[in-house]
Structures are given as C-alpha cells and as structure tokens.
Amino acid sequence: MADNTNIYDFANQAGEFDIEHFELLLAQGEGIDVKQQIDSIRIYEDIYAPFITGTVIFRDTLDIPSVIGRGGKDLLDISLKTKGLKDEKINRISGLFYLYKFSEREMVGHKMQKYAFHFVSIEMMFDFKRNVSRAFRGSPEEIIEKIVKKYYPETEKELNFDSSSNQIKFISNFWSPSQCINYASKTAVSSSGDASYTFFENREGFNFKTLDTMFNIDKDKPFQIFKENDFSTNIVTEGPLAGVTERDPNKDVQIVQNVRVDTVYDFIDVYSIYGLKSRMTSYDLLKKTISTKTVSARDGSRINDHPLFSKELIDSVDPLSMYIPKHYDVTDTGNVTNSKFVQSRLSDMRIINSSKIEIDVFGRTDYTVGKVIYYASNKKTSLNVQDDPDNVIDKLYSGYYLITAISHSFTRKQHLCTIELSKEGSMVK
What we know:
Elements (H helix, E strand, L loop, with lengths): L16 E9 L5 E3 L4 E9 L6 E8 L14 E8 L9 E18 L2 E10 H8 L2 E7 L1 H12 L7 E3 L6 E8 L1 H10 L10 E6 L2 E6 H5 L9 E3 L5 E3 L9 E3 L1 H4 L5 E6 L3 H6 L4 E8 L4 E8 L9 E2 L3 H6 L3 E7 L1 E2 L4 E2 L6 H11 L3 E7 L9 E5 L12 H4 L6 E13 L3 E8 L2 E2 L3
Parallel strand pairs: 9-12, 13-24, 17-20
Antiparallel strand pairs: 1-2, 1-5, 3-4, 3-25, 4-7, 5-6, 6-7, 8-10, 11-12, 14-15, 16-23, 17-18, 19-27, 21-22, 23-26, 24-25, 25-26
C-alpha cells in the first residue's frame, strides 16, 4: 500500500499550524483582529449535516462582546493551515462564518474574561431565515442546485454533485431550504441503482454524493493511513545536532493516539431497522393493485474484502415488513414515491452506521469528511518480532473506513483531530 505522507514537509512536529488570519467583521463595517485573544478553536464537520459549525474560546481584555451586534450580522473571517501542507485552498480551513451564540462567560483575572463564540457557515443563517412554500420538479441534483443558488445567494462554494437517474416532484410546506434538500437526497437514485445519497458541507464545498462514489478509490492510495504504533524517532547523523534524537512528524501524523470502538457490528440493531432484509408491500392507489418486494443487504463490500454480515446470516432471517402507498403525478402518471429504492437506501445507510470507531490523531487541516482512509489495528496478543506482518494486523478492526464526522481542535500548542470512522465491509469473512 502506497504511503503518501512524505509529500508533506512538516516544519518541526506533527500538529503544528498557523492562524493565517482570524478577524471579527462587525455589521457596521469594522474589522477587529482577534488572533491574539484566541484560547482554543473547535470546528465540526459531519457527513449527515449540511453545514460546518464551530466554537472559539476567547481570553479577552478588549471586551469584544460589547461591540457585537444583536442582529445576527457579525461574521468571523478565518484561515487556519497546517505547516508544510501544499499551498492549496482545500488544505486550509477558511471562510466566512456567522456568529450566532455567545456563552460560557467567566472572569479569569483582573479585567480579563473568558467566553465562547459559536459560529456556523453563512448559508446556515440564510437557512434559518427562509421558509419555502412551492413545488419542485426535476432530477434531485437539479433541484438541490436550484435551492442552493436561490436560497443561499451569497455562497461562492463549489458544488460537487453526483448525477441521479430519476425524476421527483414534491411540494415544500414551509420547509427550510435544508429540509427540501434532505427530502430530495432521500429520494435520489443513481444510474447504477445506488440510493445512498447524502448532502453535506466539507472543505471542498457542498457535496451531494453516494456511498458508491465516496468508496470508489484506488485501494493503494487512501487519503491517509492510520496505524497503532510507537511515535517514531530518527538519530541525527550530521551537523551540530549529530547524535540527537529527533521526531519524524511525517510518521507521527499517522499514529492513532487513542481509539474508541463504538460498534464492531450489531446484528439485532441492523436487522430491526430493515438493514438486513425487508419485504415492502405497496398499494397502488391509481391501479388498485398490491405488490410485494423483498430486498436483502448487498452481498459484497464496496472496498473491503467481505461484507459485514455474511450471506448465510442474511439468508437465515425472515424479512421485516414495511408498507408504502404509491403516489402518482397526475400530469404524467409517473410514480413519485420512489418506492422502488426505499429498501436499498435503508439497508445501505444502516449498515454504514453499524461499524464505527473514533480515533484521536495529530491534526491536519486537509482532513475532511467524505474521504476514505485505511486503519491498521494491531492484534492485542503476544507477538514475536519475527511474526509475519500480515499476522500482526487485527483484521476485525482494520480496513478501509469513511470519515463520517470530524472535530478539529486547535489550542495554543497544537492541532488535534477526533475522527469518526465508519465502514460497510470487513477484512475477515
């Protein structure tokens, strides 16, 4: 498996970063550089959330809250970057964010206060302010693109959309724009029959993608390789520091400092929510007919060697029943419920969330949701030095995972990341 981390020229140690700028833009037009007041920053992304959110803790002697307006128009203009990363836009955490909440104020010294400002993508504030009452018709990605451009008029973010093959029609009953987007996502189907669409914001912009697309990578080139190992050191052999032990940040950045296993697999949970096998009974309101369809979980993995749940297990269970009426557009009598793919979507989305781990690693500003990584876990048994490396790997936990959520934590000393990883396959049969 290729190791691509050495293309990054880290300055001194993993987790180093620069705050390129951090400016408070007041509604009245004034800009205040608040970089020196920062105590810590947290920024959150989630593959099931349409917007990025965050919190910044200030240690303040300027009494910044006194100049903040109450009209929801104050902004943060930020840019943070890992030292040594290529100078590209997506390798930064940057952009404009709305301040929407001020909390946790406490006095920490003479004329010094500590408090938290909560911020969100500017599009989220537009989302809160708008109620949509109209009909939509067309392909899901066309509808979503229209919603983004119409109801988030100030956005300049990239739209990274997968094409869908179906047409939908629905009426928004005073929903927010994001609720309309969520409905369109749930009813979208690709040309290959994949219904696992999700809409989310990450470092690259707004994304409307399927699990098939996100897992479709070269297995030798995952976005990152994470592994359990000791922190690495090198001995300097030349110059005034000869003989001194120094860290190798290019390797340290791969090391998992802590891991929490949420669920390896949960057969009962997945089965009980239509994840393994379901039988849908549809009543056609127009034709006055009843039809049934049984769907099982896919019998393979998108990228790992085997599916999470064996075919033998799936075959051994009875399907759970669901009931969905078919509705039609009276103008062309087309089925607008998309009932044909409801079962496969429920199964795919349930299985991807049935095997999760959470890891703590040194941070990099290019880490973002929607990327596939490889995690190598070691067996928790006694091992000999001469053991075959393939036998050292714990194949139950190891494998290719999708980054489904991430928390970037910046302190005055370093950048750390807590990453939620999900997989829909296994390295063991």
